Structures are given as structure tokens and as C-alpha cells.
């Protein structure tokens, strides 16, 4: 009779197969767990992307410190400078007035040089800028007419006086060589302004002045030296 085959090797193959299947199942479980961990890590990557977007100025207006600074900058630029109250300018063109007997004071003083000359000084006593007329109308005591003006003394521009400022005109009193006639002594003088009939008494700085037919006046000047040339 043939010898019966032993079954031990088959049992070993079965055991080996069982171990292989167990190992495969374990590997599959580990792989699944790893997949779960990968899926759970995705939110961490999303959070990182959100953080980057927040710190990035291009993420949108007002995001982060840049947006705050820009807003403050716009606020500063939009703030208008504070307006302060303004005081009326006495030199403004619309407030200029003519110099007249009502807003001036005039003095008249003889000078040592040139000889036989006198200096007129007009002061603006008003509160606004005034423009002097071309030349003074000088009316001496007992004079039959007012003296003519010396044309070559005309300034390039009208003389304007701020409040308290002074203007000047020269007066040639007499010829000094007798060519002006006998002449006479005057003890008073009034100054008028073209365009008005009002006259102002000039304060003579001497008791009397000698005048003759050579009597002349200059245009109003801003410098006394120009008035006495």
C-alpha cells in the first residue's frame, strides 16, 4: 500500500498565507490612517494661505497697517487749513482815496540850500492809503495867483501815502538876483489839492517869507532831496 502523504506542509502554507493576509490588512489600515492625517492637514495649509493674504497689502483696501496708514494719510490731505479772520488792508486798491485837506497836514519850512527855497511836507493823517495829486496849489498871503509848476520835476509815478507817511514838494520863493521883481513878504500860506476847492493852512516854520514873480512849485515827491533839486 502506498505510504500516506503527510499534511504538515499544507498546514504551514496555510499559516504562511494567513500571515501574509494579516500583513496586507495591516498595511492597508496604515495607509488609510495616513490618508486621514493628510486630509486633516489641509486646513492648516488654508490657514497659512489666509495669513499670507492678510499680511499682503494687495489683499484688499484697509487690510493690515498699510490700509490704516493710507486712510490716515487721506484724512490729513483732506483737512483744509484753518482760516483766520483778516483785517482790512489799508493799502487795498478799493480803499485808496485822494489826499485832500480833510486827511492831510502840511508844514512849510525854509531851507538853507538851495537859496530862496522852501520845503513843503504833507502827512497822511487818515486811516487809509491816499494818492497825492500832481502838485500843490500854493496860495500865499495877498498873492494874485498861484505859482506854476516846474514841469521837469514830474515823477514817474503818482506818490501814494500810507497812514502817517509823508510827501514833499519844493517851492522856489524868489529869483534872488532881482529878476523876479521887487516882491513882498508873506506871512501865511494855504495849500490846495487839484479837484477840490478845500484848502489847508500850511504851518509856516518862520514869521514870513519873501516871494517875487519867480515863484514856482515842484510836483509832489516821495523824497525831500528830489523836491529840492
Describe the protein's topology.
Elements: H1 8-55, H2 64-78, E1 97-98, E2 104-111, E3 117-124, E4 130-131, E5 137-140, E6 160-161, E7 166-172, E8 184-186, E9 189-192, E10 199-201, E11 203-204, E12 209-211, E13 216-217, H3 224-227
Parallel strand pairs: 1-4, 2-11
Antiparallel strand pairs: 2-3, 3-7, 4-6, 5-9, 7-13, 8-12, 9-10
Polypeptide structure, described:
The protein is α+β, with helices and mostly antiparallel strands and 229 residues long. 29% of the residues lie in helices and 22% in strands. It contains 3 helices and 13 strands. It has helices spanning 8-55, 64-78, 224-227, and strands spanning 97-98, 104-111, 117-124, 130-131, 137-140, 160-161, 166-172, 184-186, 189-192, 199-201, 203-204, 209-211, 216-217. The strands form 4 sheets. It has a 5-stranded mixed beta sheet. Strands 1-4-6 form a 3-stranded mixed beta sheet, with no helix packed on it. A hairpin with a 5-residue loop joins strand 2 (104-111) and strand 3. The radius of gyration is 55 Å and the shape is elongated. Mean pLDDT is 73; it is low at 6-12 and 14-86.
Short overview:
Helices cover 29% and strands 22% of the residues. It is an alpha+beta fold.
Give the overall average pLDDT.
73
| C-alpha end-to-end distance | 171 Å
Number of helices: 3
Strand order of the largest sheet: 11-2-3-7-13
Summary tags:
single chain, 229 residues, alpha+beta, 13 strands, elongated
